[in-house]
Amino acid sequence: MKSLKIFIIVIVVILIGIQLIPSALPKNNPDLSKDISKTQDVTDDVKIILHKACYDCHSNQTVYPWYSKVAPSSWLVAKDTREGREELNFSDWSDLSKRKKVKYFKEIAELVEEREMPMKIYTVIHRDAALSDEEIKTLTDWTKAQSNLLLSDN
Amino acid sequence: MKKSGVLLVAAAFVSATFLQMNTVKKDNSTTEDTEVAVKIPKKVQAVIDKSCYGCHSADGKSDKAKDKLRWDKMQEYSKEDLVSIFDEIIEVAEEQEMPPKKFLEKKPEVKPTEKEYAALIKWAEKEADKLLK
Fold first, then answer.
1. If you ran DSSP here, which 8-state letter would residue B113 be given?
2. How many Å lie between the alpha carbon of A91 and the closest alpha carbon of chain B?
3. With an 8 Å Cβ cutoff, is B35 touching chain A?
């Protein structure tokens, strides 16, 4: 009985203690001047999909949930957001060369079709981010069309 | 006897027609492919042969490597695939990530020189730009 009490106290102390370790959630930035919607024809249905399923990790407009403010889940959110933005950031789309844009459109289609993106762990909590077959087709038809435009325009 | 002779000739004729159709079809697809013909100058081809071809062609042992890039199939990729592949070649050459480190430990002599990496990058940039124009 005594040892259980000590055990619980230790756990509580650890849980409080880790709150002091900064999680360094990447900062948001409301600037939309380089957003993908500025240079690419993002239709309304595609915009909805990107925002609900990708923008939390691949843009500077992350909507941080309550558990992102509490360790240890905050560390996980910080890591996925940081790495996601590094790989692909829809808020910095205009900075990309045409070549990179074509490659990203191809990668987006591949990863979404193979259901590797959005990340599984994300869809467990954000249920509406788990894309339906129809939504996947909407997205991949769009990436294909966008990349064809880039390949044909002079 | 005569009848079967006629039948034989007829059969030969019919199959010849089919064969011809097949070759015509094949020809069509190659003309489409030449639209995006990738040109590889001798200097660049020499680097590829020395440092890349073994893994990124039909005889390569790793499926992962072959999934990503097949030098022997460069003329078969779509424009979109080619642009992506050129971008990846540029990335791995800039970072000198290819050939893989482990492989170079065994065969250090196949590592491209700085000049050879630079030639590969310049070539891939030019080919990608051609497709994007």
1. P
2. 21
3. no
Residue B102 CA, distance from chain mean position: 25
Q: How far apart are CA B82 and CA B75, in angstroms?
A: 9
| Residue whose token pair is 């992102």 | A68
pLDDT for A2 equals 87
Q: For residues A57 and A87, give the distance between their C-alpha atoms in angstroms, rounded to a whole number.
A: 10
Residue pair A49/A139 in contact by the 8 Å Cβ criterion: yes
Q: What is the DSSP string of A109-121?
A: HHHHHTT-SS-HH
Range of the domain at A16: 2-152
Q: Is A148 left (phi over 0), alpha (psi -120 to 50) or beta?
A: alpha
Query: Once rounded to an integer, what is the mean pLDDT over residues B98-107?
Result: 96
Q: Which of A49-53, A120-124, B28-32 has the lowest mean pLDDT?
A: B28-32
Average pLDDT along chain A:
94
Q: Residue A42, exposed/middle/buried by CB under 10 A (0-12, 13-18, 19+)?
A: buried
* Pairwise CB contact (< 8 Å): A102 & B84: yes
In order, the DSSP letters of A85-138 are: HHH--GGGGGGS-HHHHHHHHHHHHHHHHTT-SS-HHHHHH-GGGS--HHHHHH
- Complex ipTM value: 0.81
pLDDT computed for residue A23 by the predictor: 77
Asked if pLDDT for residue A24 goes beyond 90, the answer is no
Greatest CA separation for chain B:
75
Average pLDDT over residues B112-130: 96
> Which of B35, B81, B84 is the best residue to mutate to test the A interface, defined by the most A CB atoms within 10 Å of its own CB?
B84
How many whole angstroms separate alpha carbon A23 and alpha carbon A62?
Answer: 15
Cβ separation A154–B81 shorter than 8 A: no
Structure tokens at B76: 């078969």
How many domains in chain A?
1
